[in-house]
Amino acid sequence: MLCDVCREKEATVQLTQVVKGEVALLHLCPRCAAERGVETTMAVPQKNLLGDFLHQVQAQSHVASLEALECTSCGMTMRDFRSTGRVGCANCYVTFDHSLRELLRRVHGSAKHVGRLYEPPALDLSPRSSEAVILRDRLRRAIENEEFELAASLRDQLKGME
């Protein structure tokens, strides 16, 4: 059968189009199909059953060995981590390094932090803030010494500053 568009080459692609409820069937050659945006080349996957099976067995044994890996400090296993979602000690980060990095890659897209760094708020070094610090310290000492009248007046002074 010849291509419905160019009428020169053999039609190898059958294209069904539905436009406003009407069905149109086109027989196209690969070049005309490509011009209409239809992918004509298909890669046929090569089957290697024995190789696939051996690869799967190796992957399963690797996963089993990682699951059985145990922290030398606290005795936690990767299986325990997966069930609780928490590591047992600081040494667990070294023991389970590879697995934790893979987990971070899957969850966050990267095992390396690329976001913003925490910056503590700047200290207010104005004279008013230093007076408040002094008053708070005096208030704390007045309460410790049970000087409640002095503590009340210092509290009032602090409230007036804020």
Pick out its properties:
two-stranded antiparallel ribbon; 3 domains; 9% strand; 7 helices; elongated; 162 residues; single chain; mainly alpha
Write up what this structure looks like.
The chain has 162 residues and is mainly alpha-helical. It has three domains: 1-40, no CATH class; 55-108, no CATH class; 133-161, no CATH class. 51% of the residues lie in helices and 9% in strands. It contains seven helices and two strands; from the N terminus they run ββααααααα. A two-stranded antiparallel sheet has the order 1-2. A hairpin with a 2-residue loop joins β1 and β2 (22-28). The model has no long low-confidence stretch (mean pLDDT 79).
- Strand elements, count: 2
The 3D shape can be described as: elongated
Largest sheet: 2 strands, antiparallel
Gyration radius (Cα, Å) is: 36 Å
Residue stretches low in confidence (pLDDT < 50, at least 5 long) are none
Topology:
Elements: E1 13-19, E2 22-28, H1 30-35, H2 49-68, H3 78-84, H4 91-95, H5 97-108, H6 127-144, H7 148-161
Antiparallel strand pairs: 1-2
Helix pairs in contact: 6-7
